[in-house]
Specification:
Number of strands: 30
Largest sheet: 7 strands, parallel
Number of helices: 12
Strand content: 15-25%
Distance between the termini: 40 Å
CATH superfamily of one domain: Immunoglobulins
Radius of gyration: 26 Å
CATH architecture of one domain: Sandwich
Bound molecules: calcium ion
Shape: globular
Length: 639
């Protein structure tokens, strides 16, 4: 790995554990190194760690460990210095390193000078820190938003708040459920200024696609006519969506968000354009032909493959020409428009739609060009890209798109969503299954990856119905479309589903990554599959249960903001049963304990510290190591 020259700490306070305020900024008490100078955010720092082994009569000693991807197989030869063998390795600031010494190329030994061993029997040096560190290339700087602190809400602009009826659109013949409903950027700005998002602990917005969409209707697979209220049928990437407002309205929105410490991501639809787009007429060679290989899909390797295959490039439907990014001009054009949108609006990144249907070359180019833009902003930010790869099971496939340096920062964690749904919400799998996934999932996607854990989105039936006593759909894969028009679901009239959703949010908001709140899930907004899962946001007349869930999500958001361990910490699994899951989140400064009971009777959980504990979520005191957790309840405990 190439590193920039040493950044020497001028003041000791900037070299030790740096205290971050809840909004990600540096605490006022942290001295600046010198006027105008900045330094990189902690996850992008590396320490030069020295390892020593007291020499006897060895002919060679190597350092092996997890300090590098190939550190266990290649290793670092140690050199003899006086009575010691000595080697150096670059270790992530604040991270832990496991290692052993390989003597004479045959004998593995732990470090006799370090008694700390891992479960696997390796020596462990915990939480490595250093006064002099190096910064990785293109690292985000101190003072810029730290994305480990992000909590994201997906705001479906057309369905959120209509603050300006003068921009409202209507598509002739559209089904009422698929028609524009008037929501706009001014409406989002109004809610930003009212503190609606801040009060929920949300500091990142994902907004629907901002570019001009088709003004004609499209025929859905259900035979109904839809408008482009969702933004996924772009016609002109160089104009903004007039149905949502003006370019100035959008700039005002981003400025209002930033004034509240809220980041803004735009959905970007780079998979296709609408057939009415002039781009398609002018540059037919920029798109795959509809009848490619006899109308079937084409995959990365040029073979014919089924719909939804990995790397598939076929049209979603016959009015959505699919970009052919093997054509450099097509790639460069869309990336140029994406970067321009970030430049013009000041926004902070993208949610990238259906990224598995886009050539890797496009994503690599987008990252490279957006990094150039980042270099012009001060302090240099991390521009966050979160991808949608609709796959509930294949983590390796999701991971193949994740590399914060060159591709995505993270993806929506579909496999984790499936397990949270099955274990906590629908209760068809034991909580031990969630534990089993979590044990490997937190670090699965690699250094500095920030996945987005979630439970609801705009492609699935509203999650509240999966939390009913009898889950509305029998499979986590169900899209809920059977109830989109036929017998659409109504709001549950009892508390239990709301408690189960609160438990799921307890898990999300005490997990690493960028947790996602789909608009309305904080009030258990009802709805079947698309488009019924995109009902207009309910701003009044909330039931007592809806108000309870909203306040619970807000309390969890506040806890996450107040306690860095809940968002930046490392998870240690403590105990799990079929009904309960208990884990600790620790950042080296503070440890919090999370206990979730998804069952319908009170449970006693074990494994907590044997002392008095404060339940921050319910404002109660309890005593460990065994603590009672109410039916469908959770505790977030502090020592
Ligand atoms: Ca409007």
């Amino acid at each position: 790995m190439r590193l920039t020259p040493l950044v020497l700490c001028v003041l000791f306070a900037a070299c030790g554990p740096v205290t971050q305020s809840a909004d990600g900024g540096v605490d006022a008490g942290t001295p600046e190194t010198d006027a105008g100078a900045t330094t990189c955010q902690e996850p992008y720092r590396r320490c030069d760690a020295e390892f020593r082994f007291r020499a006897l009569d060895e002919s060679s000693v190597q350092l092996r460990g997890d300090f590098a991807a190939d550190g266990w197989t290649v290793g670092v030869p140690m050199t003899r210095q006086g009575s010691d063998w000595v080697a150096h390795a670059s270790v992530g600031f604040g991270s832990s390193v496991e290692y052993k010494f390989l003597i004479n190329n045959s004998l593995w030994v732990t470090d006799p000078a370090n008694l700390k061993l891992s479960a696997g029997g390796n020596s462990v040096r915990e939480s490595v820190r250093c006064e002099a560190f190096t910064c990785e290339p293109n690292a985000p700087e101190q003072g810029a938003f730290d994305w480990r602190d992000s909590v994201m809400a997906f705001v479906f602009v057309d369905r959120f708040l209509d603050a300006d009826p003068s921009n409202n659109c209507a598509v002739p013949g559209a089904d009422p459920a698929g028609q524009y409903k008037g929501g706009d950027w001014k409406g989002v700005t109004q809610k930003i200024n009212e503190g609606y998002f801040t009060q929920l602990g949300v500091n990142t917005l994902w907004l629907t696609v901002p570019v001009k969409n088709s003004t004609v209707g499209g025929l859905g697979s259900d035979g109904r006519i839809y408008s482009a209220f969702h933004g996924y049928w772009p016609v002109d990437l160089e104009r903004y969506e007039s149905c949502f407002g003006t370019q100035q309205d959008l700039v005002d929105l981003v400025n209002a968000a930033h004034a509240k410490g809220v980041q803004v991501l735009f959905d970007f639809a780079m998979v296709h354009v609408h057939a009415s787009s002039a781009l398609y007429a002018q540059h037919p060679d920029w798109f795959w032909p509809l009848a490619f290989n006899g109308g079937q899909c084409v995959c990365d390797d040029g073979s014919v493959c089924p719909w939804n295959s990995q790397g598939q490039r076929c049209w979603f439907t016959d009015y959505l020409p699919h970009w052919n990014y093997t054509v450099a001009a097509a790639r460069e054009y869309t990336v140029k428009q994406a970067v321009r949108i970030l430049e013009e609006t000041g926004a902070d990144g993208f949610r990238l739609d259906a990224i598995k249907h886009v050539d890797n070359a496009w994503l690599l180019l987008l990252r490279a060009e957006v990094e150039k833009l980042a270099a012009t902003r001060h302090p240099r930010p991390r521009m966050y890209f979160v991808g949608e790869t609709y796959d509930f099971g294949n983590r390796d496939y999701l991971k193949s798109f994740v590399d914060p340096k060159t591709k995505l920062d993270g993806q929506f964690d579909f496999p984790l969503r499936m397990q949270v749904l099955e274990s906590i919400i629908a209760r068809r799998a034991p909580m031990t299954a969630l534990r089993d996934l979590v044990l490997s999932n937190d670090t699965f996607y690699g250094p500095n990856a920030l996945m987005s854990p979630w439970i609801g989105n705009h492609d699935l039936g509203r999650v509240i119905h999966m939390a009913e006593d009898m889950p509305m759909w029998n499979s986590g894969y169900a899209d809920g479309k059977d109830r989109a028009f036929n017998n659409p679901p109504t709001l549950p009239a009892y508390r239990r589903p709301f408690e189960r959703i609160a438990n799921a949010f307890t898990f999300l908001l005490t997990s690493p990554g960028v947790p996602l709140l789909y608009y309305g899930d904080d009030i258990g907004l009802p709805g079947g599959g698309d488009p019924d899962n995109r009902r207009f946001m309910q701003w009044s007349g909330l039931s007592v249960d809806q108000q309870w869930l909203h306040s619970r999500v807000a309390a969890l958001g506040a806890l996450r903001k107040e306690h860095p361990a809940l968002r930046r910490g490392t998870r240690t699994v403590l105990t799990a049963t079929s009904e309960t899951f208990v884990y600790a989140m620790s950042d080296g400064t503070e440890t919090l304990y999370v206990a979730i009971n998804r069952g319908d009777v009170e449970e006693t959980v074990s494994g907590l510290p044997a002392k008095s504990l404060r339940d921050l979520l319910n404002a109660e005191s309890v005593s460990g190591p065994a603590v009672r957790v109410p039916a469908r309840g959770a505790r977030v405990l502090s020592e």
